[in-house]
Amino acid sequence: MIFKYLLLMLVSSVAYCRDVDESDSCAFGTYDYIVVGSGSAGSVVVNRLTSDENITVLLLEAGGYPTFHSEIPFLAAAQHLTEQNWGYHMERQPNFALGLNNELMPWPRGKVLGGSSVINSMLYVRGNKEDYDRWAAGGNPGWSYDEVLPYFKKSEYASLKRMDSEYHGIHGLLNVQDVPYRTKSAKLIVNGFQDMGYRYVDYNGKDQMGVSYVQATQRDGRRCSAEKAFIRPAEFRPNLKICLHRRVSKVLLNENKEAYGVQYIDSNNTEHKVYATREVILSAGTFHSPQILMLSGIGPKDHLSDLNIPLVQNLPVGEKLFDHLAFIGLVFTVEKPIIIDFSQSMAPTSLFNFLVNGRGVLTLPLGVEAFAYYKTSAANYSENYPDIEFMFTSGSLHTDHNLFFKNTFGVTATVYEALWKDLESKYAWSISPILFHPKSHGSVKLRSKDPLDPPLLYGNYLSDPENYDLRALIDAIREVQRVTKGSRFEKLGTEQVRTPVPGCEQIPYDSDPYWECAIRHIPSTMNHQTSTCKMGPKSDTEAVVDHKLRVHGVKNLRVIDTSIIPVTLSGHTNAVAFMIGEKSADLILDDYYISRQ
């Protein structure tokens, strides 16, 4: 079995056969716009700007082209173990991640053309109407739900069996589809949650509260990344230059605080400068956009002073970071083979079915098949929107028999052997509660003045003084226990795995203190970090960019990625990043055409 897996990875590890510009030609010439980073937002901006043949754009990306195995949804977790991931970890936090290697939680990010959309789980979740109305209420005109919905629809080419059609687009470049393969356990979950009071919903439609099969960014069963959807249709336009393996180290600013270009480091560690006549656009993501700003002298005065970086503009860059925390220890066994069959997924027939037909078990994105949404008793708002997402996986960390899931999540060998090893010979699935609206927040700081040093990433999870985050997660665990006691589950012999988490054995099992201990031992990020370059008016002391995503106090410089999200989300960040890219492209083009009148 291991041989088959390795053969699959070997056969599919070849990068797409396209030329990569490794010369110094990127450093020659001047462009209207320079876009730094090719993730979901940046790719959209590049595509939309270059649709006008009179606009010239340079795209700088630190990674290379995606490899073919990133196309395979079932191998999404394996992408985190490749060079397509920056390989970051959050800084160690006391009494947290105690069951992870070195007590460090992996924080993956895509280092590849297409960014994190090449290594993520392809789960398309926009969030709730209330999220965007809160954006607008915070002093950001143009970002209410009714105003951003057209941009979600603009990107989307939806082909879903059950959807609220007025909320979806059918002419966009980004494919959003039902996953072609479903296990019987997925049907059990969706029907079982409905038995216990949840409605079936299109969670990207009129109402999010309920249960549903996943909607995924897939095209014919394969990954539909930002690179596939937006870069490929544009990459041969004569007004677009794409330069890979270029690490931007700073924005070039003149004495009037105007951006006029960037400095970057090529694959030979040689520095170059390249120039923009109109704007520099940072789409480097929640970690690297703030890093580049701070290296350029735009950031917190005291932090930059500590590193002897001359201050250009004092702004709270990186001072607030939100993330969605998940608990991965809720696992259930059943008596019948209704889950993912790993041996089947690694069979040559499965690979053939995937490659030829875009069908079969390999189309399952990390094994995730269904979502349900829930408002806990800890929520302190009256509106009916969720603070918890239940993510159902037709398997668990044991599914791949210790090939890559354990290492992807950073779980120690001791914890894996205790909790998951025995499940390799059983039928087991999992539900992960995900906290949407944490009160705790982290931050991003510079490690040093060296642009090649990774940033310091602080999660600061479960640190809110009111203990809301823990109370919400424990409430969510109780709700899963309630639902899984329904008759449909009982008929299949559903049993919760009650093996104590190593380090929590002395606490009475199933007590609230036990679940707190378990959450602190085996948490996981959902890789939804946001808000390090928060959008807001000048009067907002936490804001870095305005509602047009222009950096406060600096001209010709915008940040366009999920770092601008001002408040916590009831959704996943990839869908939102595409929307941000679409709306921002219109903002830029509006300014461009006005300037030419």
From TrEMBL:
InterPro entries: FAD/NAD-bd_sf, GMC_OxRdtase, GMC_OxRdtase_N, GMC_OxRtase_C. It comes from the Eukaryota. Pfam families: GMC_oxred_C (PF05199), GMC_oxred_N (PF00732). The keyword Electron transport does not apply. GO terms for molecular function: flavin adenine dinucleotide binding; oxidoreductase activity, acting on CH-OH group of donors. Its cofactor is FAD. The active site is at 528 (proton donor), 572 (proton acceptor). Keywords: FAD, Flavoprotein, Signal. Residues 1-17 form the signal peptide. Residues 110-133, 285-299 form the Glucose-methanol-choline oxidoreductase N-terminal domain. FAD binds at residues 112, 248. Belongs to the GMC oxidoreductase family. This is Glucose-methanol-choline oxidoreductase N-terminal domain-containing protein. It comes from Pyrocoelia pectoralis.
